[in-house]
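Margin note from the TA: students keep mixing up input and output lines. Inputs are the sequences; the output is the structure of the whole complex. Example:
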Amino acid sequence: MKIVAIDPFYLRMPEITTAADGTQDTLLIRIRTDAGLEGWGECDASPLVSIAVYCCLMSHGNIINIRESLLDETLDKPADVLRLSEKVLRNALDIQHIQHAYSGAEIALWDLIGKKLEKPVYQILAEITETQSNPYPKLPYASVLFGDTPESTYQIAVKLREQGFRAAKFGWGPMGKHGEENDIALVRAAREGMGTEAQIMIDAGVVWGSDYETAYNRANAFAEFSPIWLEEPLAPDAISAYKALTDKNPRVPIAAGEGSSTYRMAEDIIVNGGVNFIQIDTGRIGGIMPSFQVRKLAEQHGIQYVNHTFKSHLSLAAALHVFATNPNFNLLEYPAANSELSQCIVKQPFQIDPDGLVRVKERPGLGVDVGTDAIRPFLAPVKIDVGSNTVFQQTSL
Amino acid sequence: MKIVAIDPFYLRMPEITTAADGTQDTLLIRIRTDAGLEGWGECDASPLVSIAVYCCLMSHGNIINIRESLLDETLDKPADVLRLSEKVLRNALDIQHIQHAYSGAEIALWDLIGKKLEKPVYQILAEITETQSNPYPKLPYASVLFGDTPESTYQIAVKLREQGFRAAKFGWGPMGKHGEENDIALVRAAREGMGTEAQIMIDAGVVWGSDYETAYNRANAFAEFSPIWLEEPLAPDAISAYKALTDKNPRVPIAAGEGSSTYRMAEDIIVNGGVNFIQIDTGRIGGIMPSFQVRKLAEQHGIQYVNHTFKSHLSLAAALHVFATNPNFNLLEYPAANSELSQCIVKQPFQIDPDGLVRVKERPGLGVDVGTDAIRPFLAPVKIDVGSNTVFQQTSL
């Protein structure tokens, strides 16, 4: 089949705040073929900046937009996705933003191939890499922001526990901003609210920059509350600081990697940063295949791969296919502070099964359908003119 | 003084081809203050994608555009530039494209500070880092594309030699695409055209991807023509392949780094890739200060820093300030295949002095003035609407 349309859709809530809540807007990519199939993907990125990568005028042979690279191309088999990804990335060699923008299209291409072959994406990945293809359930951890105070954090944790979550990650907000005592009180509140049986994770939201000494001290101070990990204590690029931190063997394992915009960034923080958990956002790193390659690298290094997902369940579906077949990678970031927008993007959100676990969808492609009627009210139509050219005009949902 | 306006200008030639010629379009950034001063900078990036980073609507606290971060801010001293850069980058933590876009603004901020303090930028950099402040002249190497054939490459080289160039770099085009024999013939033609006294460099334009064996064989095959370096034989991200290549000690030194969109990417290819020359584009890596930091790292590692410049002499001015004060870093990439557009951007292009060398401008700021009347015919006005918001409307030049 031939690719006949590549359409981005910028969706947003009417009110957007500075909270580190990634569900306030989103960019969906729809790709259609002449066989009447359509695939969807979601980017965790600035929607407008990413749209520009789909429509920018050519600057030279290394700055060519995604639409131009994909339109009229053949898409019949998994190898075509790999070939098209190579073409897109090569044509956009000098566009820094290419991975953030392309992620949605790459995911949509896998969705399309799955629909054409009538197989779930995880199964196709297993086949082309000749690895085992049984999917395993994951333990979802609710991913939420800290409350502004320990008390409000406690209330959030209690509510999550009442909702049945056996694991939860608390992040950003006041963490690291009001001194050690408050930081410890926040973690204590999370633990007490969730109870002693639950798994908790702490996300420091890059707050200590390159100050690995403070990160080390906090990790040790948090150890009495037994968090599974301390996440992003340092800036994404502070690889030497990560190395200094992990070399000191803090009493809580270190997680990082959501800022990986390329496979190399993930490889760098694993190999040279020494992290214990690698967290990859399929909607940032360029899609499903580079995420899968990081998963393989994590397996080689004996560390744990975890998804980073702070968008809708469309992103969650893509994320799950990447590591569904590895039983040891058993934790799933599960966005639990969802906006109204993010809750209506797919028609089949991932439910937590009675055993408390989440399973990949046994349906073709990603296994979820986009609720176009539900999301239409959130569409922010985009129009871009450059000189006398209208380079982007909104297509209808 | 206060920043009162941050204005991007997208300039382009009427016809743009797929040739790897970066001078076919450009993005200039003009920043104005309430003291009546203005500073300019140039990005080596996709203009439209970068403009989107100046005006995109907020997605959350980690996706805030550059204009919003800079507008109404105080700019009085060098420390303000560093503070503002930190703010811009932190506010745009989740925008992959932030460095490509911000480079032009960062350069403009240095231009402004130099004008305010009535000092050239290189001198301010020396003062704030307490390093020596004598500038040294550089040997310009003409940076051109290979001809389509060895014969046309020879003609290009002869012409450069007649123009007085004592050094020239030949790159991209057919290199690596038609087998070893043709590759060698291309290099031979460059050497014969330039003569035995000249310095020549070879730029393979990332053509061998991660195939370090071929890169190694080519480097050795080219050695008889004594090029100063073999540049970018491999993909920018192929750090392990660079390591494998440099560990084999090819007979021609290896240069790379122009694809560094962050300081860490440059650090990575130096520390983990083992390159002999690090090539940094001030218009991509986030501006003058991160480039300067790479220069310092190169000094620590005993390798050579070289600018990457394939835009106008506005970019060349910014590039020169970064390493003017290091006498050992004596080579200067000097764009010599300039479009009509790129030739008219500054009023004081860098001349090659009678001794064959190029010197940094001893004037405040970058030391060059933008020829607004000359470039106005090339302006492609941009308008961007998102929903009911016009987020970008062209200001006049």
